[in-house]
Amino acid sequence: MRDSELDSPMIHALAISATYKHLTLSPSFQRYTFSSWIKENICKKECCFYQKDLSLSLSKREEVCKCGYSKTDHADEAITSQDFAGEAWDRHRHVREVQTDAFGDISFGGLGQKTGKYVRVSADTSPEVLYRLLTQQWELSPPNLLISVTGGAKNFYLKAHLKTVFNRGLIKVAQTTGAWIITGGTNTGVMKYVGQAVKDHALSSSIRSKIVAIGVGTWGVIHNREALVHKDGSFPAHYLMDSKDQGQLSCLDNNHTHFLLVDDGTHEHYGVEIELRTLLEKCICRKHLGNKESDVTIPVVCVVLDGGPGTLNTIYNAVLNGTPCVILEGSGRLADVIANVSALPIRQVTMALIRQLMERYFGQECKSFIELSIIEWTKKIQDIIRMSHLLTIFRLSESSHMDVDVAILQALLKASKSVESPGNESWKRQLELAIAWNRVDIAETEIFTEESQWKSSDLHWAMFSALVGNKPEFVRLLLENGVSLRDFMQDEETLRELYNQLPSCFFQRKLAKRVRSGQGSRSTSTATGKDQKITLTHVSDELRHLLGKFTCHIYPPSTEMNHLSMSVEDTSMSCEGGQASCQVLLKERSTEAQRDAGRDMFLWAVVQNNKELAEIAWEQCTDCMSAALAASKILKKMANETSDSDEAQDMLKLATHYEKHAIGVFSKCHNTDEERAKRLLVRVSPFWGKTTCLRLALEADDKSFVALSGAQAFLTQIWCSELSVDNPVWRVLICMVVFPLIYTGFLVFRQDELYQKEAQKNKDMKMVETAAGSRKKSINSKDRTVCCCSCPCSQCCSCCCSRLVSLYRSPQVKFYLNIASYFAFLFLFAVVLMIDFQPTPSAAELLLYVWLLSLVCEEFRQLFYDPDGFGFSKKAQIYISDVWNILDVLSIILFILGLTLRLKTELFYVGKVILCIDFVVFCLRLMAIFMVSRILGPKIIIVRRMMMDMFFFMFMLSIWVVAYGVAKQGILIHNENRLDWIIRGVVYEPYLIIFGTFPKNIDYAEFDVNSCSMNATDPLKPKCPVLNGDQTPVFPQWITIIMLCIYLLFANILLLNLLIAIFNFTFQEVQDNTDRIWKFQRYQLIKEYHSRPVFPPPLIIFSHLYLFIRRIVLRRPPIKHKEFKRELSQTEEEVLLSWEALMKDRYLQSAKQEQNQSMERCIHDTSQKVTTISERLEREEETSSAAMLNRLARLEKQVTQSAKALQWIMDSLKSQGFSPKETQSQTSAETDESPDSFRSLSEREEYFHENARQLYYPNSKLTRFPVPEEKVPWEVSFKSYMPTIYPSEDSVDDAAGSEPEPLHLNRNPGGRTGISGRGALKHLGPNLSLDLVLTRWKDSDRSVLEYLSVRDKSRGISTLPGGPVDSAGQLPETLKTSLGEKVYEAIKGKVPEGTKVFEGYVDDCRNTDNAWVESTVINIHLDRTSKVVVDINDMVARSQGFLEWQVVTSKAQLGSYQRDLLRQVAALHNKKS
User: Fold this and answer.
1) Contacts of 1378 (CB under 8 A, 6+ apart)
2) Region of residue 370 (phi > 0: left; psi between -120 and 50: alpha; otherwise: beta)
3) What is the pTM of this model?
4) What are phi and psi of 260, to 5 degrees?
C-alpha cells in the first residue's frame, strides 16, 4: 500500500510532464506564450490629448490632431479630457504608452506568399527587450556581424552594374558571416534594393541559408497598417502592398523577414525610428561574439548608398561611436560627395569645394540648402574623413578584383587595427572576427601578412575555434601559417575537449551512451553527482569497437577508468605478458599518441563524417595508408550500425573516398618500389592498434584495394612461398610426385632468381672491371663455383634440404596435395557406398572413418587457430561466414548421423541413404578447388549470386504453383484424404507442368478411368474425379483448360523469362566485379593453406597430434608467421614512413592535376572567364561616360582656380591704388572666402585643434556651432559665425544669452571652438592643470621603462595621474585621493627635481572660445628601490586595478595626447641611458 501511494505522485508528475511537453510543441500554445510575452513587455504609443491642428485639418478636410491622427482615431477620453486644458500640445507630454495591438506573422500577397514577423513597439522600448524578442521569441541566432544599410529613401536609382555588385556582395557577406541586415523596412529607396537582393538570394538558394533582413521603420508612415492591428495578434496578418492613394506614406517591403515598427504616437512623421534603431545597434554591438567567453563583441558596419542630410547625420554619429562606414561611390548624392573628398587633405576640403560638389551631385535640390547647411556639411564631412580608419570608399573602377563583401569586412578589420592594444591583441581580435565570419580570403590578405609575427602557441585558440566551428579552410590556413599540429595536440586535454564538443552525430551519441553505461557501472560511493565528461578512454573503447577487437587501444586507458573500459578479453589480447608488460605497453601508447597528432585530428574528423576536415588531417598523418584504410573500416562499421539511411549513405561515400586514397598511395608506392610497397602491406602500424594495412583492408571489405596488382603480387608470392611465381602448374605437379627434379633446375626457386640477378650483376661488373683493367680473378672463380641447385658448393647440403622443405611447405603445393587427397577421399567414399557397404564395416570403410576424423580435426584447428588475435567469437563469426565451411560442417554432421544410423541393424538402410546424400554435399564442396583458378573462380561467385536470385524466384513461383494446384485439386478430386497424393496433386503435378508433363485428368478426351481409383482404395493410384453415370467426369473441362492456359502463360512464359532476365542482370552486374571479388576472397584461401599443416588427410592427423602435444601438453606458444604481420625496427619504420609520405605527396599532386584537367573544371573555368569578361565590358560601358564627365569636371575646377587666382591678382592691384578702394571692399564683402583667407590658409602650417570643435559638447545637450577647418583661426573672416552660448550657473546674464564684458578679454589661442562662455571649466581664460609621468625601471638592467597609470572607469581608459591646479607650482588635490596622503607628500617634494616635458595649450573637448586648458607635464623618475616606489606599490596592490604600473610602449592604452607625451619621456630616458 505504501509503495502504491509513493508511486501515484510520481506517475502524476510524469503525466503532467508529458502533457506539458506535448503542449509546448503545439502551434497554438506557442502563439499563446508569444502573445503573453508581447503583452507583458512591448507597448505602443497613442495621443492622450486631442488638440486640433488647423493647417492639417484644412488640407485633409477632416479634423486632425497635432499628432497627425484624425479625431476618429483618438479614444474618447483623449477628446474629452480636461487634464491638459490650456496646454500647448507636446509630444513628450501628451503621448502615453499602452499595450501594443499589432504583432504576429505578416503575410504578403502575390507570387510566393512571402511571410515574416512584425511588432509595433514604442519609441521608448528598451533595446535589451527588443534583442530578447529577436533572439528568444523569434528564435534568431545571434549575429556574427550587424550590417546597417542607410541612404536615399526616395527617388533613388542605382546603376545596373553597381546594383549587381551591391546585391551580390551584400548577400555574400550576410550569408558567409551569419549577419543581420538592418534597414528602414519600407519598399522605397535603398531598402527596396536590399529587399530585391534578399529576394534574388531566396530564389537561387535553399531555405537552409536564409538571410535575416530586419526592417526598423516608423509605424506612423506605413501604408495599409490597419491590416496589422489585432489586440491578440495576427497569425498571420494579410498585408496588401498597394501604392494607390498612399500619398506621403510607404509600404512595407515584402522581402524583409522581420519588422520592428517604431511608434511615437504621431502620424506621417519620418525619422521616428532613428534613435531606437541607433540604440538597438549599440545594444547588439555590446553583445559578445559567438560565446560569452569571447572578448570580442559583435561588430557593426554602416553601408551607405546615395543619401541626404539625414544620412549625413547617421554617418557622423556612426563614426563618433566608432562604427566603420562603407560608402559606395557612384550611388549618388552624399555618397559621391564624401567619396570625392575622402582622399584629400583636410585643409583642401573647403566650403567652396563642398558647395561645388553638392551642386554637381544634388542638382536642383542643392538650391534648397542655406549657407548654414553648407557650413555644417563641411564640418561634418571634415570630421568624417579625418577618421579615415573608419571610412572605406568602394570604388567600382578601382575594385574590379574586389566585391562589396570584401570591402565591408576590410572596413571592419581596418577599424579593428586602429584600436590600440598591447602585443598581438589587435591581430587576435581581427583573426577572431575572420574565423567567426568564416572568411579565409580576408584572413589571408589582411591578417596573415608580413607585418604580423605569429608563434604556433599564439594560434592554438584559433585552431581550436576553427575545428569546433567546422571551418576547414581556416584549419588549412592556420597550418600553412605556422601552427604545429604536434604542439597543438600535445596536451591530451585539447583532444579531450574536442571530443566533448563534437557536433551531433552518430559517434557522439555512441560516446554519450558509453559514458552513461560507465556511470551506471560505478558504485554509489564513487558517484560525484555531476555529469561525467567524455574521456579518451571512452573514445579508445569506441574506436576499438569500430576497428575490431583484433586491434589494440588507440589511446592508453587511464588508471581510473581501466576497470570500466577493459574487459578480460581485451586485457588478455593487449597485455599477454602480465602486468609489467601491460604497463610498458601503456607507456608506449602514450608516447605514440603524443607523437602522431595528425592521426588524432584525423580520427576526430572521420568519426563525425566531416570530409573537409578529415581531408586536411589525412594529409598530416604519419601513416597515411593505414589511416585511410582505418577510416574506411570505421565509417563502414558506423554505417552498418546507424538507423539513419541518409547518414549511412554519406558514411559509405566517405569510406569509398578514403579507399581510393589508399589505392592511390599504394599504387604510387608499388610503381616506384615493389619491395617497399609489400613491406607497407604487412608492416605493424603502432599508430593504428598494432595491425597492418592488409588486415585493415580485409576487415573493411575494401575489395578494390586488395584487388590491386601490388597486393595480388604479394599474395601470389606467399602462395608460391619459396617457389618462383613464374613456374608453370604442370611443373609443380610433376615435382610433387618426382621431387628429385627440384635439384635439376626443372623447378625455379626464388633463391635461384636472386642468384641469377646477382650473377648478372657480377657479370656486368666484370665487364666494367675488364674495361678498366682491374683483376679480381680469385673472387670471380670462387663465385662461379656453384652446385647443381645454383647454390654455392659450401652450402650445397643445407640448400638441398631447404629446397625439399620449401617445396612441400608451399601453400600452392599444400593445396594440390589436399585436392588429390580429397579426390581420393571421394573415390573411397563412392566405392564404399556402391560396392563395399556391409553390415560389418570393412577395412575400406574403416579407412574412410579415419579419413573423416582427420577432416574433423582440421576443421577444429581452423576454428581455434587465431594468429591475428580476433578472439573466439570473432573467429567463429569469420568461420561461419564462409559458405565452404558451412558445407564442411553440414557434410560432417550428415556423415556422423549416417554413421550412427548404419551401425544399427534396423536403421542400416536409412543410414546408407543419409550417407549417399552426404556424398552429394562432399561433391559440392569440391567446387572450392575452382576458387584458385583465375578463370573459373569468378564464375563460382556468379553461380552463388544466381542461387540467391533463384531462391527469391522460387518463392514467387511457389505462389503460382500452390494457387493453381489447390484450385485444380479442389475442382477435380472430391475429398482426397491421402496426404501424399494431396501434395502430389497440389505441388508436384503443377511443377511438372512447367517442364511439359501435363496431367491427363483435366481433359475429357484423354481421361482414362482405369488410371485412377474410384474410392482411393488403391494406394498406387490417384483418386478418380467425380463421374457421371456414363463414367465421364462431371467437372467442366473448359474451366480446367483455361486455368491451365493461364497458369502456363504466367509460369512458363512470364516467370521463367523473368528468371532468365534476373540471371542476365546478375551476370552483367557481377561480371564487372567478379574479378575484384575473386581477388578479395583469394586471400582467405591463401591464408588457409599457408597455415595448414604439410601433410594432407588422412596423414594430417599426425600434424594434429604434434600441435596438440606442443600447445596443450608442453604449453609452448604458437609459431608466428611473419609473412602477414611484420614488426620493423624504429629506423626501418622511420625510413619507410618517410618514403610513404613522399609517395603520398606525389599522389596528391597528380590527383590535383587530374582534377584541374577534368572536363568539369575546364567548363567551370571557362564560365568564370566569360563572366569576368562580360562584367568588364559592362563596367567599361558605364565608366566611359563617367570618365568624360570627370575630365570635364577637372577642367571646370582648373578654370575656377584660374579665375580665383586672377581675381586675387586684380584685388591686389586694386589695393595698391590702381582702382577705387570701395570696389575692393565691395568685392570682399560678397563672400567669406576672401583672398586673405586663401592666402592665410595656404601659408599656415600650424595644427588646428580638433577636440575643442566636436559638435557635441561633453556632459550636456548643447551643440557647437560648426567650425570648418579653414575658419578656425581668428584672423580668418567668418561672418556667419554664431557660436552657441554655454549658460553658466553663477551668471544670470549668461543664462539670458547676453555676452558679458570679460568674454572679449579672453580669446582661445587655438582658434574658434563653436561655443562661447566658460563651458565646463572653472573660469574664463586659461585653466591650468598638471600631469605627472611617474616612471621607474622595471629591472636592474634598465631595459624596460614603466609608468604609473590611473584607470578612468567612467571612460574606460587609462590616464596619467594629474588634475587641475590654481597655480603652476601646486600639485592637483585629486592626487591625494588617487595616490594617498603619504605618497602625495613624497611626490610633492620631488616635483622640483622633475623634468618639464610639456607646457602650453591643450586641445581639450571642454575648451570654448573664452576658456581653455593649459597643461604642464612633469616627468619624475623614481628609483625602483626607493621608499616612494614601495609606498606606491602598496597603493597599487590595494587599488584593485585603479593604479597600475605599465610598460612604456607606442601602443600604450592612453589618449593620443598623453601617448605623445609618453613618447617624449621615453626619448628623454633613451638619451640619458
Assistant:
1) 1350, 1361, 1442, 1443
2) beta
3) 0.74
4) -115, 105
Would strands 179-183 and 145-151 be described as parallel, antiparallel, or unpaired?
parallel
Confidence of residue 1421 (pLDDT cuts 50, 70, 90): confident
Under the banding of pLDDT at 50, 70 and 90, the label for residue 1215 is low
Closest CA to 259 of 227, 305, 296: 227
Identify the residue whose cell numbers are 570696389. 1223
C-alpha separations of 1089 from 715, 718, 808, 1415 in Å: 12, 10, 12, 99
Q: From CA 652, how far away is CA 699, in angstroms rounded?
A: 15
| Identity of the residue numbered 798 | S
Q: What integer pLDDT is reported at residue 287 of this predicted model? A: 87
Mean pLDDT taken over the chain = 80
Tell me the CA distances in angstroms from 1212 to 460, 708, 1218, 1240, one per residue in order.
Answer: 70, 97, 9, 14
Grade residue 664 by pLDDT with cuts at 50, 70 and 90.
very high
pLDDT band at 1026 (very low <50, low <70, confident <90, very high): confident
Neighbours of 1167 (CB within 10 A): 10
Give me 798's grid cell.
Answer: 643445407
d(CA 1393, CA 1418): 9
The Cα–Cα gap between 700 and 657 comes to 13
DSSP element (H, E) containing 105: strand 103-108
In which element (H, E) is residue 96 found?
strand 95-99
Radius of gyration of the chain (CA): 48
DSSP 1128-1149: PPHHHHHHHHHHHHHHHHHHHH
Q: How confident is the model at residue 325 (pLDDT cuts 50, 70, 90)?
A: very high
Give 284-290's long-range contacts (Cβ < 8 A, gap of 24+): 284/127, 284/131, 284/143, 284/146, 284/180, 285/146, 285/323, 287/131, 287/142, 289/144, 289/432, 289/433, 289/436, 290/144, 290/436
The pLDDT value given to residue 789:
54
Walk across the sheet containing 212-218 and list its strands: 234-239, 103-108, 115-122, 258-263, 212-218, 179-183, 145-151, 300-305, 325-328, 391-394
Whether the link from the prior residue into 309 is cis, omega within 30° of 0, is no
CA 170 – CA 326 distance, rounded (Å):
12
Cα torsion through 101, 105, 108, 114, rounded to 10: 160
- What pLDDT, on the 0 to 100 scale, is given for residue 604? 93
Sign of the Cα torsion 1077, 1080, 1082, 1084 reads negative
Q: What is the mean pLDDT of residues 1145-1168?
A: 82
Q: Which residues contact 324 (CB under 8 A, 6 or more apart)?
A: 301, 302, 389, 390, 391, 392, 411, 412, 414, 415
Residues 6+ apart with CB under 8 A from 722: 749, 750, 751, 802, 803, 806, 807, 809, 810
Give the position of cell 611465381. Answer: 725
The residues, ordered by sequence, that sit 6+ positions from 466 with a Cβ below 8 Å of its Cβ are 435, 472, 474, 475, 478
Residues whose CB falls within 8 Å of the CB of residue 217, separated by 6 or more in sequence, listed in order: 184, 185, 186, 250, 252, 259, 260, 261, 262, 273
> Given a cut of 90, is residue 527 above it in pLDDT?
no
Residue 1085 CA, distance from chain mean position: 45
Contact (CB, 8 A) for 215 and 259: yes
Above 90 in pLDDT, residue 13?
no
Question: Residues 953-981: what's their mean pLDDT?
Answer: 84
Higher pLDDT, 965 or 1227: 965
**Helix, strand, coil content of the chain in percent (nearest 5):** 60, 10, 30
Q: Point out which residues pair with 160 in neighbouring strands.
A: none
Letter string b/e over residues 741-772, b meaning 16 or more CB atoms within 10 A of that residue's CB: ebbeeebbbbbbeebeeeeeeeeeeeeeeeee
- H or E segment to which residue 369 belongs: none
The average pLDDT across 812-825 equals: 89
Distance (Å, whole) CA 868 – CA 690 = 10
What's the pLDDT tens digit per position in 474-490?
999 998 888 888 888 88
Rounded Cα–Cα distance for residues 583 and 687 (Å): 18
Residue 218 near residue 272, CB atoms below 8 Å: yes
